[in-house]
Amino acid sequence: MPDQPNDKPMFYDPTERRIRSFVTRAGRLSVAQARAIEELSPRFCVPYQKSLLDIDACFGRAAPAILEIGFGMGDSTAQIAAAMPDRNFIGVEVHTPGIGSLLKLIGEQHLENLRIVQHDAVEVLTHMIAPASLAGVHVFFPDPWHKARHNKRRLIQPALVSLLASRLAPGGYLHCATDWEDYAVQMLEVLNAEPALRNTADTYAPRPPYRPVTKFENRGLRLGHGVWDLVFDKSPD
Asked: For the segment 188-203, what is each residue's pLDDT rounded down to a tens digit?
């Protein structure tokens, strides 16, 4: 049986019957996305495994590692990775068109500091990411599950935040962003309740300059919609 982290968090359910924060949707691949997957996935995609990932070996160098959960089509991920060549980025996504889109950007921009895992982020964190190994975690615009009866499916819940905190190195940060105000309120409440994390702002944080403003976000801002960033860090030991 493959090695597993010894500090298995309570969030982990051995039966894997927990409520998931995503629904796997079939999506059509463009010709360019399919070509990028065929040509680039052997180099830049990391298969899911139930054993710890050697992040330095995966990138061929030692550098601070940032994990992003749910990168969508990958535009912001690619921009951030291009702007921070001294950091390694691991993007976790379940939807194949998004994988193809980010791989296409990796090829076009010659990004060497990005790797992709196509799998459930909770299982990736539980099995592949060692405790205290990440310099940061990005969770940008997760599905808001805006109907009240679906709120239980939201990604940012106490058990996941505890798991994320355990994977952050001392001094590491967790950056969440949402354009749904009630989700922002829930995020703030959940993050404030995690004893291992400290809010870097009084409540919501100004958008850090490394997070690009997306076209969708710009359109919403022009219409008067809000966007809320939350940046918490892990206190040094």
From this structure: 999 999 999 999 999 9
Handedness of CA 189, 191, 194, 196 (dihedral sign): negative
Q: 3-class DSSP state for residue 3?
A: coil
174 within 8 A of 196, measured Cβ to Cβ? no
Residue 113 and residue 89: Cα distance in Å, rounded?
6
Segment 116-156, tens digit of pLDDT: 999 999 999 999 999 999 999 999 999 885 655 546 779 99
Q: Is the pTM for the entire model greater than 0.85?
A: yes
Sign of dihedral through CA atoms 209, 215, 221, 225? Answer: negative
Tell whether the torsion through CA atoms of 190, 122, 77 and 59 is positive or negative: positive
Comparing 20-29, 156-165, 207-216, 225-234, the range with the smallest average pLDDT is: 20-29
Report CA-CA distances (Å) from 211 to 45, 104, 138, 160. 23, 20, 9, 22
- Provide the token pair at 205: 């944080």
CA distance 104 to 123: 26
Please classify residue 154 by burial: count the beta carbons closer than 10 Å to its beta carbon, then call 0-12 exposed, 13-18 middle and 19+ buried: buried
Cα Rg of the chain (Å, integer):
17
Residues assigned a catalytic role: 143
Measured between alpha carbons, how far is 92 from 115 in angstroms, rounded to an integer?
9
